Amino acid sequence: VFRPTGLIGASVALLLALPSTAVAQVADRSVVFTSDPSQALVIDRDAGLQPLIKAASDVLPLAVAGLAVAEARFQGMARLLAEARRRQRAASAALLEVNRLVADIVRDADRLRTTYDDVLGGLSASSRRHLRRDARTRSNRSAVVRQVTSADWVCPIGARTKFRDTWGYPRSGGRSHEGVDLVGIRHDPIVAPVDGVVSYRWDSVGGRSFDLVATDGDYYYGAHLSAYGREGAVRAGDVIGYMGDSGNAQGVHLHFEYHPGGGQNAVNPYPLADAHCTDRADANVSLYD
């Protein structure tokens, strides 16, 4: 028995697998008939070179136009890359200049600090204390101006009040007054003048008191409350207590202190109250009228 192998075998198998297809060739066309005569497929053929040349001449202008578009896009991309490189060089130069400026500032600051330390070291102890006191005074004055002109600072009395400037007035035990007394009606609300954190305490002098550490590092103290309000994180305007006369107070009022930069640095808070506590009665007028 003969068994075709390889390419010959595959070709024979392919021909045997298509028994229902007949191919008829004519001089200039091939007609392929499937098993369904109504689905005839006619393929026109032309073996001459002229149609190929004509087809190529039709495609050539399209190819040339496509190359022109590609070249234009390539040139545009090249311009974008060149602009990007230029901007990168400019940014690098600007960054280098900023670094140089920062280095110059740091170097000058070091020189000034060294000069200041040298000058300070040559002064007497009393002169150094005087310079530091003047520096603190200027810093405190700037802090007061900042709070007086702030649009966010809130009067700590949430109702009508009256007060006057009693900073430095003598107090019991040889003390001097380090705040402003904001007079009000018992149980009127006391509010946080700024954002910060509130805690509470009690002693025989201040009675029920609050400590408020502001988000900017400043410190506020209030005394003689009748009751506490919100504790912990507060926003300006939150109720943190109520007017009273606890401790050694004479009459219902809030003893209010301001310490720029933290405790142990009390400054006169009267300008703050004077600027922001607009619901105010004259000192000789009763709040009950």
From TrEMBL:
Domain spans labelled M23ase beta-sheet core: 176-269
Gene3D superfamilies membership: Glucose Permease (Domain IIA)
GO molecular function annotation: metalloendopeptidase activity
SUPFAM superfamilies: Duplicated hybrid motif
Pfam hit, one: Peptidase_M23
The protein, known as: M23ase beta-sheet core domain-containing protein
